[in-house]
Amino acid sequence: MNGGGVVKTWNCRFMFVGVLAVLFMLTVVMNGIGVASALAQEETARKKRADDVYELGKTVVTAQKQEENIQDIPLSITAFEEYAIEDRKIETIGEIADFVPNLMLFDDSISGAYTPSIRGIASPNQSLSSSVGLYVDGVPILSGTGFDADIIDIERIEVLRGPQGTLYGKNTESGAINIITHKPDNMLRGKASLQAGEDEKRQFSLNLSGPIQKDKLFMGIAGQYYQKDGFLENTLTGDTVDDRENRFFRGNLRWAPTDDVDISLIASYKKYDEGTNCLNWSKEGAAKLGLPEPQDRLVSSNINGENKSDYDSQALKIAYEISDSLTLTSISTRRKSNNRVKLDRDFSSAILAHVFTDNTYNKMSQELRLNWSSDRLKSLFALYYDKDDDTLNYELISDIPSMAGIFNQDLKGEAYAAFAHVTYALTRKLSLTGGLRYERQTRDYEDKILSITADDEWDEVSPKVAVDYQLTPGIMIYSSATKGYRTGGFNSFTSDPAFLSYDEETLWSYEVGAKSSFFNNRLIINSCAYYMDINDMQVYEAITPQVSYMTNAAKATGRGVEVEITARVYDGIDVMAGYGYSDVEFDSFSDVQGNYEGNKSPYAPEYSFNLGVQYRHALGLYARADYIGYGKMYFDRANTYSKGAYEIVNTKIGYEATSFDIYLYAKNLFDETYDSIGYYGGVYTIYSPPREIGAQVVYRF
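Structure (tokenized):
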């Protein structure tokens, strides 16, 4: 880091310490208020939020597809319940990563597109097979395209680190993100939220749920409207080109015809009506096309970029409690997303790279599982099926004939799987977990322009074994060995049969960890260390100096550690911290452009951390500050282009009454710049968002 960067980093840390000092002074002042009667009344009204909701170490998760205490699972997992999500002001899926060690959701500069990475294993650009699975109420999202979910009326977010092939299958090679929305019940409840902030930000959300017929029929709805002006100016028009606007709606109809049957139908829809990417040439990219050196956050586009994408999904869940120990569950899902985007990728008044896409992605899935439990045994047996039907339409218009092109392709696929997962208590303290999954994937490919058809298939066995030991009532240690994989696919932009398809990528992960609680659950410390052996790694291999295809040309090794600490240092004051270190290096990988042995895998920050302090007083005062940082990461296999380490600070302060809350907040309080210079082979720069300061009013009923 250069001298200016060091000063900037220490200034950021100094100011963060200043924020903490303010929180401490507020604590002293509020504890000195002698309003005994008011305190007693408000303490009763807020007891659930201030104490019960935040009882440390008591989070129940369904990470292993059954309800378990998070501290009892031999797995590295981070979970956020409803109030924890709101307190951290997590509003987009990308912001989840700020609070999870070794999770990176790299924003590809347009809504609904992320490059997800856990423990340094990322999905290469343009791949339809992700290394991280996203599940929203059981609906699988297994590619970087459409990797999005709205964080509204959420019961819980779970982030599982490490391979999840046994329980979740393909494309959860390095982890999975589970998002579970609230289930309507007999309690009538609702919440309305209104936000306003810089750049004309406006956000309104509403959720309401309750009984239609007591104990039998329930309904929940949630909706959100979001609008914000962009910060990338078009010099030809004087307008910003990256404005954001979208609408979201979700409905949940739940029917419990008997005490043993629970049926839920959940449907959601989101529509984007937005501008273009927060993107421009890098100096190198502009020079390659003979364009002027780009100006910071200024473009000269001669067409207006658009993102008119949308997605809708449905999930039907049926749970039948056959007996107190035996439950049969069916989850049927469908998701359709339309990617309609218009981009000026030359950012100039010329016609060098005007891109038009109209892609449709359809996925249907069905899972049928049987859970059985007793005092010493918990088991799960299941069958899974999914079907993909995708259509890709892509056109690049250019005055340079070699750059222009039209693509029209169909991709279809089916997957079948059977799996089992069993945990058995060998003794009162020692438990053994075993899992096994067999999965078979078939895919068909058709290029309608080049008249090419092809098909391929892959199958994989994904085992898992783990052992955990309850060292003391508050300390559990564990060790595991798990296999994960990412399915194979097709290179959409080639007619060369030798490179038309590529195979699956696999890894073995070996992990040891400890989950511990002290001082009557006032201090929680969870930590782990892992080692990964990655084979047939899916990478872009240069076949000629100008042409690269995705192949299985690399092997790599990964290692790292993860630590999470939560402490209640005083009644109303919580401290949260997380740290992840990740090192993924190529053991072997070379092509016509060079030898990359020993280089770092792209989209893998060397480390990530978060440090938060939160204060909640029974009289209603709330304050929080979060210090978030990421280490250096590379964009390419040669490690030529990289994004330096950076840190940001988020803050939130407000007053919480019995039925309403009012807050002031700041994201990136000190307006740090952390642009991604050298993205996509060195030719682009993705601009980091500026500081956002705003106000929020919440009404609960």
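The first helix runs from residue 3 to 31. The chain has six helices and 44 strands.
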